[in-house]
Design a protein that fits this description.
Radius of gyration: 18 Å
Number of helices: 2
Helix content: 10-25%
Strand content: 15-25%
Strand order of the largest sheet: 4-3-2-1-5
Largest sheet: 5 strands, antiparallel
Distance between the termini: 59 Å
Order of helices and strands: EHEEEEH
Number of domains: 1
Number of strands: 5
Shape: globular
Length: 136
C-alpha cells in the first residue's frame, strides 16, 4: 500500500495579493541609437519586436510603477518622466511590456510600495495618453 503525502505550502497574505512598486531600475537609456545599433536593426528587420512603441521613449523614463501579481510576477507597468508624467505603459496591443519580458519577480526589485489607487490613477492617465497619441 502506497502512502501519499500532501505538501502544503504556507503562503502569507502578503505573498497572495497584488502589489505595486515604484522603482528607478532600468532608467538609464540613452536617446537615439548608435550607427552599429541602426545597422544591426536594419539587418534584423524581419525579427518581431516585443515593444516597438517603447523604443523611442525609453530614454524619457525616470521611474517605473509596476504591478505584481500574487506570484510576484510583473503584470502591468507604467513609465514616468522626471515630472511624473506618463510616457509609456503596457502591456497593450502594440507592446508586450518591458518588465513582463524579463524573468524578474517582486523580490528582484528595489523601490517603494505604492497603493492600488495610485497605480490605477496612473493607469487611467496612461490610457488617456495612449489615446491622445493614437497608440493602442
Amino acid at each position: 500500500m502506497a502512502i501519499k503525502w500532501l505538501l502544503f505550502v504556507d503562503k502569507t497574505s502578503e505573498e497572495m495579493t497584488t502589489r505595486y512598486l515604484r522603482t528607478s531600475l532600468a532608467t538609464e537609456f540613452k536617446e537615439g541609437r548608435t550607427l552599429v545599433e541602426r545597422v544591426i536593426g536594419s539587418m534584423c528587420f524581419f525579427v518581431p519586436k516585443a515593444n516597438p512603441g517603447y523604443e523611442d521613449r525609453l530614454h524619457l523614463v525616470s521611474e517605473w510603477v509596476v504591478e505584481f501579481d500574487k506570484n510576484g510576477l510583473p503584470g502591468r507597468e507604467i513609465g514616468l518622466d522626471q515630472h511624473g508624467g506618463v510616457v509609456l505603459a503596457g502591456p497593450n496591443q502594440e507592446d508586450y511590456g518591458f518588465w513582463l519580458d524579463t524573468n524578474m519577480t517582486y523580490q528582484d526589485f528595489t523601490g517603494e510600495s505604492v497603493s492600488a489607487e495610485t497605480f490605477e490613477a496612473l493607469w487611467v492617465k496612461s490610457e488617456a495618453y495612449r489615446n491622445a497619441c493614437g497608440r493602442a
